[in-house]
Design goal:
about 50 residues, mainly beta
Length: about 50
């Protein structure tokens, strides 16, 4: 996890299937950095429009 993301905005994310489960790719604006979280089991929730 990047140390200098306090005060930054979560700009974009994508979820991909991976061999060991799933990868969540996240883009922050301060600093402009992408990182990923890897998990075996996840739940994705969202609003129905």
């Amino acid at each position: 996890m990047p140390e200098n993301i306090k005060g930054g905005f979560w700009l974009y994310d994508e979820v991909y299937p991976a061999k060991s489960g799933f990868e969540l790719h996240v883009l922050f604006d301060i600093p402009f950095i992408e990182f990923k979280i890897v998990a075996e089991d996840i739940v994705v929730e969202g609003k129905n429009h």
